[in-house]
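# nightly structure sweep
# worker-07 picked up a monomer target from the shared queue
# config: single-sequence mode, recycle default, output format = structure tokens
# input follows
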Amino acid sequence: MIDFIRKHPLPVAGVILFICMAVGLSFYGARSTDILNRSEYSAFYKDIKAKAEDGYFTDQSVLSGYITSWADEKGLEYTIDDSGNIIFIDEAVERKKNVSPTVICASYNYETVEDNTRLLTSAAMIAGTDTNAGRKTVVFVNDKQNTGSGYRHLSKKLFKNKAKVIYMDYASSAYMSNSSFAKKKSSISVKAGRYEPSCDSAVRIHISGLDSDIIGTGITKHPDPVSALSTLLTRLKSKSAIYQLADFEIGTNGDMYPVSLDATIMLNSYAVPSFTKYLDKRIKAWDKAYGGDYEELSYTYELIEDPEQMPQEAYSRKATEKLTNVLYTIQSGLYKYESDDSIPEGRAEGDVYGINAVTGIRAADGAIVIDIMTQAYDDEYMQKIMDDNAAAAELFDCTFTDGESVPRFLNEKDSLYRTFRTTFYKVNRTISANTVLTTDSDNYFTPCSYLATKNENADIIHLRLNSDQARMITNTILCYIAYKGNMLF
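# output follows
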């Protein structure tokens, strides 16, 4: 700057003004990319994390009350719709009334709050920060049991004009996406009458103490009470034992993992020692695999030999074997691309294209019904999994029924995608020259599919936060809302 002044002499007042403008611009530029109040972020995060770890959030209303109490303390205005969605709206400042509105959506679910404390903190900070910008809407969406009810019932009026919509969630890796899987429900019905048992002994099995979670690509690592029952029934069949299912109750949890099992299996006394020995091994295996993550895990059994305590009715041996066969064939798991598949661009052999999950088993009139929730890359791959499930039902003379479906999410607009990626770079490049926000495609279902139905002109992306980049992404979102990509440098 000194050399510039020497080569271009100016009046003293002009020099002073030039220097002040340069310093002022530099200072303003620094301030303009640091909107997040980090002390407030830390305070909210520490408090909600401590409460989550202490088991404070015992149901959905407690978590909802926590969010609204925080908003009341901050003096923030909000509304709660009939579906329990908590909605914060900042109307546009006068000079930015024509700027495209921004909508931020984040799920709240008391069962997953301990894993999502940073997500909820980020959403709260975005709701509570004055960006002095265009219309900003932040929605804590009531997603109890991950059924999507809160998303389905969001008012279309929240997604005005060509809204820019950001759905946020949280996991171990941070990235940005503009596509995710379809979802479909189906069921298999096994004809199953109840009769006087033909077996002389019974074993009652009990599994509890499991936390539920969103069904995703980690399905093969999650403890599954349905698979546990299937394993026991399959064991008896493989040993050619005579057995019957007397009763069962699966702790179903909407579109999340089941949480418990109570079942009574009848068998003849000669097969009991071998079966209970196998049960002991299964219990040890479960404790080794899951005991460290689930402190209250309980996997126990009780042998019943007293005739007066025996079940008076049971499903027929034929029906029980059919159930065994179907459960063995359609167990929860992942579908992956093989070499002869028409693999989409950006995907590779071995990548996940589908998730098949048994979400519950229930007794119906004259039948046992297996409920299934499937996620898949697109309609073609969804049909492949549906065909497998239908074939399993047909093979064992059962009835397959198609249920509700939700299409995949695919946003072919690139304005928000490109602008947010550029904003992230500009806001965070001073932190590290290598700071980047990875872009990827979701290999699971997201609520973006529901959001896409609210306004066909909406531009939607999915942002996944993680512990390393949650605050960076939160600050970037605030900068995006404030400037819509019109950064100073």
